[in-house]
Design goal:
Number of strands: 5
Shape: elongated
Radius of gyration: 24 Å
CATH topology of one domain: Butyryl-CoA Dehydrogenase, subunit A, domain 3
Structural class: alpha+beta
Number of helices: 4
CATH architecture of one domain: Up-down Bundle
Largest sheet: 5 strands, antiparallel
Strand content: 5-15%
Distance between the termini: 44 Å
């Protein structure tokens, strides 16, 4: 697969990771109420998110309430707000930079600069993936720790956003890693090509003299 194909794959990975980050940030599915024991009939299930908390009734009705204050959130969810937003911003910016420096576009005419631009895009995508995985891992750790704590109430379980955040973070890391690897390869090959032409250009002059 050529450089253009790799760049297209990385753009697709970046878009998938960005969608996962946006959904993870928007949906209130970070923490779900847990019911342990036997013969327990649940009348309602609560969902906690970064922006709101929802209660789903057994009849199918669901009510959501926005968090009135940032301080009423747990520490991990407070940090998750900032990290997920920054992650989505970095991923969006890295995709735009990748479009500018990729081989299937003509935004940048200088072929020697394109590998450097794609390297910057790859580093930004890796940072976006890390910023998405850190808050979901932190939140998952707190949920698991509280679940196994006999004094910890109420019991919570991992929500769908936790798993979606892990998947989105891995996708961003994969796309950024591919960009960094192939940009270095392209940079080395372009440097060798320039040296080859330079030697060929100097050879006729020496023969002529």
């Amino acid at each position: 697969m050529g450089s253009s194909g790799i760049h297209i794959v990385c753009v697709a990975l970046g878009v998938l990771g960005l969608i996962a980050g946006i959904v993870c940030c928007a949906l209130p599915r970070w923490k779900v109420s847990s019911f342990t024991g036997q013969n327990i009939v649940t009348a309602q299930v609560t969902y906690d998110g970064l922006w709101m908390a929802c209660v789903a009734q057994s009849t199918g009705q669901q009510q959501c309430k926005r968090h009135d204050s940032l301080l009423e959130l747990a520490t991990d969810l407070q940090a998750a707000r900032a990290m997920t937003i920054i992650s989505c911003f970095l991923c969006s910016l890295s995709i735009l930079i990748l479009f500018a420096g990729s081989d299937f576009t003509t935004c940048v005419q200088n072929e020697d600069v394109k590998p450097k631009i794609t390297l910057v895009a790859g580093i930004m995508m890796i940072l976006a993936g890390l910023l998405l995985m850190i808050p979901v891992s932190w939140s998952a750790h707190n949920v698991i720790q509280n679940f196994h704590n006999p004094l910890g109430q109420p019991k919570k379980e991992l929500g769908a956003c936790i798993f979606l955040g892990w998947a989105g973070g891995v996708i961003m890391l994969l796309g950024g890693g591919l960009l960094c690897c192939f940009s270095r390869i392209n940079s080395g090959s372009s440097g060798g090509t320039a040296k080859y032409y330079s030697n060929n250009a100097s050879a006729p002059n020496s023969n002529y003299v």
